[in-house]
User: What shape does this take?
Amino acid sequence: MGWAIALHGGAGDIPLSLPLESRQPREEALRRCLQIGVEALKAKKPSLDVVELVVRELENIPQFNAGKGSVLTNKGTVEMEASIMDGSTKNCGAVSGLKTVVNAVSLARLVMEKTPHVYLAFDGAEEFAKEQGIETADSSHFITAENVERLKQANEAHRVQLDYTQPLQNGSKEERPNANGDVQLGTVGCVSVDSYGNLAAATSTGGLVNKRVGRIGDSPIIGAGTYASELCAVSCTGKGEAILCATVARDVAAMMEFKGVPLEEAASYVIHECMPKGTAGLVAVSAAGEVAMPYNTTGMFRACATEDGYSEVAI
Amino acid sequence: MGGWAIAVHGGAGVDPNLPPQRQEEAKQLLARCLNLGISSLRSNASAIDVVELVVRELETDPLFNSGRGSALTAKGTVEMEASIMDGTKRRCGAVSGLTTVKNPISLARLVMDKSPHSYLAFSGAEEFARLQGVEVVENEYFITPENVGMLKLAKEANTILFDYRIPTNGYDTCGAGVESPMKMNGLPISVYAPETVGCVVVDKEGRCAAATSTGGLMNKMTGRIGDSPLIGAGTYACELCGVSCTGEGEAIIRGTLAREVAAVMEYKGLGLQEAVDFVIKNRLDEGFAGLIAVSNKGEVAYGFNCNGMFRGCATEDGFMEVGIWE
Assistant: This one.
């Protein structure tokens, strides 16, 4: 028992030989975000607050594909989406197509708490953001040089890219993994169980590099990219289209609920047996304070900690 | 295997005072759509083609809340959404925020078949529609005088009932309607428009498919997305079954209703009707909804916990039924 927290910064074909200057800032960022979450849990904050707090932090870090640092659509714009779910009440909120909202996960929370709806998108969501007075910024805040470069490369290759590629300096083929040429991606997410046993999950992303304007992935879809119940909380990352059709997050919880399978086994089964290789990863915690972080891609930026003192930051 | 089976719905949550003439019209439309699907199945069409065909028919007819006849947003416009899923390979396609596409379900299918994505929305979806050359019309085409009247009533009801910015007991979060069973989604049943149309089919080869389409909630905020386009919530199909839901969108999303039916079949080994009953009983909390489902064994089932659901079902052995009430 006790609290537990896990977070991710994206699963993908993260090259095994990722250069230090790319590894270090990301590892430090993961460490920092983990620390923020752990402090909050120690201060007895509820899971819902913790996951929102941590995801806000991840959104503000330009190296991850969410908020600032979001990858770009085929028109060079950002369209961000996020969802959040409270396991004890099953209340949830989601947003898509945001262009100016600095912290998408917080707007998702407002949708959950301040409207009779679960999901708002595009202009309607932006309007709601204004009404709520949430922090907004113009596109220059979100767009980074790295992502402009990624888009350029994707255009040249006529590909929709799942974003974890570093803008290639030398055209190295390391990130060309799958037959379909898709390379893997970002997204950030956090799951936690607090000292009272309440679970929550949140996921946020800029989506796919060069995605068609209007494309929605798995991150804002309850049951696909995000899910929380009284048994567990799950946040996914990977190829959105695949995660959506497989309702990954809900599946982990369903296996636990209906088959009585423990967290680690359920999470592992869904990722390794149900998803094509190279398409997905997830972080999950159970009400009992366990953590699981399976992925079937080369790597996944992740971190976790449990009350008994265990903690891990890895790629 | 058990042969083909098909079910259609035109929404859950029906005004008990619905005039008999309207009830009759609804039943005739459901019967017509069923027959359309049945002819197709008899000519060996695949499940995915049949669900699309039938939902197109439902969208085109102004009677139910989809395509023409869609409920209106708070701004008096129409924003339609739909999703379709092919159980054999668990492929899916979904669209939201459509304002000019005559048949949203067909665009959802094109997203599934002709794009690298699974879900497109708003201006991006409209653009894709034009690239694909699907039939588009002016937004006014979808608006019916009846719904303009309903919108007015809904606005009046909302002013009296609640201002959703002020949290009040039960109305500010999803799954409202606790106090009075004659309210759904916070609106009195007389102005609440059943949200959705849908069709589920298992064909002769045992392949399952599901499709759902809607104009959404009357007086919804622009940009509001409901359960209909969300895979796992309003629509789901896999090797075992095909499911389409209708009712309070928010409750369906929280309960990941469509996926649940498949999950209890898969993980608890329940049969189709058992699974449907289990899900309706246990996954809705205080929300109101209904669903239709078929299994790869040629069975058909439906369930709802609210006041009525427009539905029709048929199986290869000659069974056919159209109904509204319990």
Q: What stands out?
A: The radius of gyration of chain A is 18 Å. Chain A touches chain B through 49 residues (CB under 8 Å).
